[in-house]
């Protein structure tokens, strides 16, 4: 028996539910229905998370079988199963689950953050090689100004940067630019949502 | 001045509908040039010719938050890339840090394969969850970029600091990287480290520039008009106190 929803049905369900959530903004009477729909969505997202884990498991199981960097994948699989069982047994706030998070995951992610710091410093230094344009120059000059205005550098302070130019860049120029970018992102988000409601953008396949 | 959200939604919807019908005969009109998309198209063509692989990263945002819109832009790009490169020797790979977006990516790829009549070539592992936190996602995606003959990485979705690791890995392979994020930290990192960054709302114009349907083009134009409306409102509301009209 094929239970796969055909496209018109799935599109109709997605559009109808989206429309209800949207109209609940102007019709407060629909708020209860909206909350119900959002609760269903949260439940489905949690199930999808499990499917994501299953995909991760399958990918690495396949690597172990084919011998493609099998050791790393085997470590991941063992760690994944162990963490899953421990967390299922004593909950996410359990002692052992917390130990795994604080002593394995956190240090690994922190070390990745350290690698990132080096990568970004190199990237900033190489920016003029990558893109020789006006904005790259503005980026480098701003970076230089902010570094000088961050405080005494090797014991030397430049009051013009720390007291005048730095605060001006931080409080006016960057805040204005940030707001401009946020407005752009908000408009894009709004347009994307409406395209999905109109059924022209179907992230669930078409 | 506080304009209610339904007014903005209604205005945006009206503009999209107007431009969809108005520009039907001349859809390419008035789209400014974005070098990132031009170069990405060229890279996709080259990768099909030289048998290398493309990687689309959809980021780690959840589908329930506003960051989902960025992932949807990534899914639009994934569909376009898959329809060009799916039947090549090295089909494109998609990575994500969220289970729900993984399902959507798999569905998008499956649909593209079906359209090309090569459904039997499709594998579920063409879309992968590589980790569920930002850094574990990046950590899982790194070997994929470094070991799979990746010639280009399109990082379009919700990314923050971890984006720097992905662009650095792409550069190590000598590949092209395009980065777009709804997150401001992610955008700053892309500006410094990717070959072509998408700034601000450019991310959401992906569908329009990668040759999608007229609604994407209309939506890009609606965004342009709304941006001018916002600028006008900002200027007017700044000047009102001067004339004591507030």
How does this model look, in words?
The complex is a heterodimer of chains A (206) and B (246). Chain A starts with 6 loop residues before the first helix and ends in an 8-residue tail after the last helix. Chain A is extended. Chain A is mostly helical and 206 residues long. Chain A has seven helices and no strands. Chain B has 246 residues and is an alpha/beta fold. Chain B has one domain (37-211): 3-Layer(aba) Sandwich (Rossmann fold), CATH 3.40.50. Chain B contains nine helices and six strands; from the N terminus they run ααβαβαβαβαβαβαα. Chain B has a six-stranded parallel β-sheet with strand order 3-2-1-4-5-6, sandwiched between helices. In chain B, α4 links the parallel β2 and β3 (127-129). In chain B, α1 crosses α9, α3 runs parallel beside α4 (99-115) and α5 (134-147) packs parallel to α6 (163-172). At the A-B interface, α2, α4 and α7 of A face α1, α3, α4, β3 and α5 of B.
Uncertain parts of chain B: none
Task: For the largest sheet of chain B, list the strands in their spatial order.
Answer: 3-2-1-4-5-6
**Total domain units of chain B:** 1
Number of helices of chain B: 9
For the largest interface, the chains and their residue counts are: A-B, 63 and 77 residues
CATH class of chain B: Alpha Beta
Helical residues, percent of chain B: 40-55%
The major sheet of chain B is characterized as: 6 strands, parallel
Question: Topology as H/E string of chain A?
Answer: HHHHHHH
Average pLDDT reading of chain A:
86
Helix and strand succession of chain B? Answer: HHEHEHEHEHEHEHH
The proportion of strand residues of chain B reads 5-15%
* Beginning-to-end CA distance, first to last residue of chain B: 9 Å
Total beta strands of chain A: 0
Shape descriptor of chain B reads: globular
- Main sheet properties of chain A: none
Put the structure in a nutshell:
The complex is a heterodimer of chains A (206) and B (246). With 206 residues, chain A is mainly α.
